Amino acid sequence: MGTGKRGLMATAVAVVCAVTVLAAPGTAFANPAPSPTPSAGPALAPAKDLEAVRKKLDELYRAAARATDEYNAADEKADKQSTQVVELAKKIVKGQEKLRKLKDRAGAAAAAQYRGGGLPPEAHLVLSDDPQDFLDGAGRVREGHHATKGLLGELSRTQEDLEQYAKDASAQLKKLEAGRKAKAAAQKKIEKQIAQAEKLESALQKEEQERLAELETEAANKAQTAWLDSGILNEINGKASEQGKKAVKYATAQIGKPYQWGAEGPRTYDCSGLTSQAWISAGRGIPRTSQEQWKQLRHIDVQDMRPGDLIIYFGDASHVAMYIGDGAIVHAPRPGRTVTIAGAGSMPILGVVRPDAGTGSN
Predict the structure, then answer these.
(1) Which residue in 197, 231, 235 sits closest to 216, CA to CA?
(2) Helix H or strand E encompassing 340
(3) Which single residue of 115, 196, 250, 251 could bond 281 by disulfide (Cβ 3.0 to 4.6 Å)?
(4) Checking DSSP bridges between strand 298-300 and strand 349-354, what pairing results, if any?
(5) What would the DSSP string read from start to end of 106-138?
């Protein structure tokens, strides 16, 4: 074989070896050749290093999910507090108008009493042509005194109400300000975690990013397989309620839309934004965050769940998905991903909650 042919063969062998190394899962991405050719790109990270990257990314995105729950909770509180402040402001305005009218009436009553109270009762009796008219007038005076007393009491109560409204409004404004600070702090946490994750991913070469995606899929499939191998799916045979069917229809119609922290649709969603909006579309309002959904909604045994129920994940309840049947969920996974279908057991299950109390249908 000539020198030219031997050179071509050596190059082909090197290419085949490189492809084999890249394609083999779990194989260290190291070049066995003693010295790489000058044209070779940077060495790829070993599989164990990519697995460490996968775990780190998972950690960062989970931290972002927890911060997103904090943000959503603060946002929800801020909305309620803003509404309460507005309602108190309306009460204050109405109270001030009522107080003005009461003061006008009290002033008029005081003037009337002054005009009629210059002479003692004996003098009024002597000067009166008809004693009965005097007695009737005296009765009206007594009624007037009672009315004036009641008016002054109402005036005092209105002033007290106004003072209380002002105190309540001040307290709500303080809470609102604290809530806004908590919301801003949570936003900083989210942005920091996501920025770190994106920086970590952007440092990878294209081949490494592809392999990383494969590792994520493999980890999810492994967890789902273990869950199914437990035989749990044989016990899950619940039928969706009418509201559950509507919620599932809404959630699955969002498949392909991007994840966005703090979003409730209709273009983007975070995990609890998707589930809460799905149930709102079915006529059932539920808590906004995954943690509050876990705290407030009725808990159901996993084997008793049915389509439309919500599966809460991880020990801190930082993720939520909707069960759609046949061992599958629909959820908004994390930044950089879209609403998708996944295995119900692909993540550690904390428990299951049921938003509605309706019976299942056959």
Answers:
(1) 197
(2) strand 340-343
(3) 250
(4) antiparallel
(5) HHHHHHHHHHH-SS-HHHHHHH-S-HHHHHHHH
271 is catalytic: yes
Neighbouring C-beta atoms of residue 2, cutoff 10 Å: 7
Cα-Cα-Cα-Cα torsion 200, 202, 207, 212, nearest 10 degrees, comes to: 40
319 is catalytic: yes
Q: What is the pLDDT of residue 185?
A: 85
Q: Comparing C-alpha atoms, which of 275, 233, 270 is closest to residue 251? A: 275
Q: Which of 17, 124, 146, 319 is catalytic?
A: 319
Q: Are 293 and 235 in contact (CB under 8 A)?
A: no
Q: Which of 15, 14, 16 is nearest to 34 (CA)?
A: 14
Q: State the DSSP code for 261.
A: T
Look-up: residue for tokens 């062998």? 13
Task: Find the helix packing angle between 47-116 and 206-229, rounded to 10°.
Answer: 80
Which one-letter amino acid corresponds to residue 299? H
